[in-house]
Design brief:
Helix content is 30%, strand content 28%. With 429 residues, it is of the alpha+beta class. Bound molecules: flavin-adenine dinucleotide (FAD).
């Protein structure tokens, strides 16, 4: 029986080593000793992968972001060998830690799209999950605020779309109703979305990790997929880790590689341009808001989205400690970097001053940035998530998840259910 070691993040005081027939869990207070033992266990376990992994494993998932982990938790079961491969030293090091943390309700997305359906279903699943777990969340509700008559017309269209998407509880508020619940917000009308909330995404990912592991799924960190070849009953996956390059075979290969998902599809031989799978990086910056201004709002406050629907507009984000920030902006970029440009402060201030009159320019400080893996090129129409088995491209059992931008965090449990059904059909059907 093949196995992976599962090194946890550096500096942790727990090390777990899974072996084919035993489980060791021990506590060590000395970081240097942890590092030494971890390196030893890691290389020992990876050596064993190479040594033992001669059978075809059942399911391999590339990427330990919130989506890959939710999928792992969904498809794992004691009679399946399930592996998650992640290039970083722990989970959630890319987009799944660089977002607004909003549990979206599903208003914005075209009717019938995967984005709409999986967002609405994911929103519901998350709140159910919170009842059974200790994951931090707050169902704050959100307002989409129109600052003039033209935007008020846009709000009507948005409300209709939200209702068609089966978003629950949406309600149009007059200026007076808005003033009553948010006296510090300026607007002529607003949509109230009561099912919007915020979540501790790290805790959510930890929950999925624990659930996947409880069903014997194994996660290999510092393990990068560098090649994919089609073989008779699945895929030969080439992997690079600190010990070098090796490969193994898997029956089902699930691409949850986020910003790297188009490259992974290309490795499997898919032509990105004819498939429409080429990703465009779209940076979103955040500025924190100081001066105790967080006490002046009770909910998440959004503008009416810009007509090009590239994003939902720079909005007020509150976290579970009630810290306030503004973002994310929208800027297509050629390469990935997370630097926030201080010169964008004016743009942030100008975007929100209409509906957040209490914000002063000097309240804003550069905070963090994330990168959206967008299928939509600049100037193009909105694109849906790609979630599909590539059987019609001659690659049955290769399941691509590409363009999982917002609302990917919200939709993660529903995406997992969707992928789980595809996997069941492949393995059992
Ligand atoms: C600015 C911003 C704001 C957002 N706000 C929200 C929000 O408020 N609400 C919401 O619902 N969604 C939001 N999103 C979207 C949400 O964050 C993403 O949809 C979600 O995190 C995507 O998760 P993922 O697992 O697909 O990708 P990731 O978190 O990027 O995980 C992919 C993983 O794959 C790994 N990987 C890649 N290539 C390889 C390889 N070759 N080998 C091994 N590992 C590999 C990467 O290291 C990474 O860890 C936002 C996104 C951005 C950028």
């Amino acid at each position: 029986m093949p196995f992976f070691g599962v090194p946890m993040s550096l500096g942790t005081d727990y090390i777990y080593c899974l072996t084919s027939n035993s489980f060791l869990g021990f506590k060590c207070p000395f970081n240097y000793l942890v590092g030494f033992i971890k390196d030893y266990i890691q290389s020992a376990c990876f050596y064993d992968i190479i040594k033992y992994m001669q059978d075809t494993v059942d399911i391999t998932i590339v990427g330990a972001g919130v989506v890959g982990l939710a999928v792992a938790a969904q498809v794992a079961s004691r009679n399946r060998q399930v592996y998650v491969l992640e290039r970083h030293e722990t989970f959630g090091r890319e987009t799944s830690s660089r977002h607004s943390g909003v549990i979206h309700s599903g208003i914005y997305y075209p009717e019938g799209s995967l984005k709409a359906k999986l967002c609405v279903a994911g929103n519901d699943s998350l709140y159910q999950l919170f009842q059974m777990s200790s994951i931090g969340y707050r169902r704050l509700g959100k307002l989409i605020v129109a600052t003039g008559d033209e935007e008020a017309v846009e709000l009507e269209i948005l409300l209709e779309r939200g209702n068609r998407n089966s978003v629950c509880g949406l309600r149009m508020l007059s200026r007076q109703e808005l003033k009553k619940i948010e006296p510090n917000i300026e607007g002529v009308a607003a949509i109230l979305s009561p099912s919007t909330g915020i979540v501790d995404s790290h805790a959510l990912m930890k929950y999925f990790v624990a659930r996947a592991k409880s069903q014997a799924a194994q996660i290999a960190y510092l393990t990068e997929v560098t090649g994919i070849g089609k073989v008779a009953d699945g895929y030969q996956v080439e992997v690079k880790d600190s010990d070098g390059v090796f490969s193994f075979a898997t029956r089902v290969l699930i691409n949850c590689a986020g910003l790297g998902s188009d490259k992974l599809a290309e490795m499997a031989g898919i032509d990105l341009d004819s498939a429409g799978y080429r990703l465009h990086y779209c940076k979103g910056e955040y500025f924190s808001v100081a001066g105790g201004k967080n006490r002046l709002v009770n909910r998440l406050i959004f503008p009416v989205p810009p007509p090009e629907v590239t994003g939902v507009g720079i909005h007020v984000v509150l976290d579970l400690d009630s810290r306030m920030r503004l973002g994310p902006s929208i800027q297509y970029v050629e390469s990935i970097d997370y630097v926030v440009n201080d010169e964008h402060k004016q743009l942030f201030y100008d975007s929100v001053k209409g509906f957040l009159p209490f914000i002063d320019y000097d309240d804003l400080e550069p905070e963090m940035a994330g990168i959206r893996p967008k299928l939509q090129a600049p100037g193009e129409d909105i694109r849906d998530f790609v979630i599909r088995d590539e059987g019609d491209k001659g690659l049955p059992g290769f399941i691509n998840l590409i363009g999982i931008e917002s609302p990917g965090l919200t939709a993660a449990p529903a995406i997992a259910g969707y992928v789980g059904a595809v996997v069941d059909e492949i393995l059992n059907g």
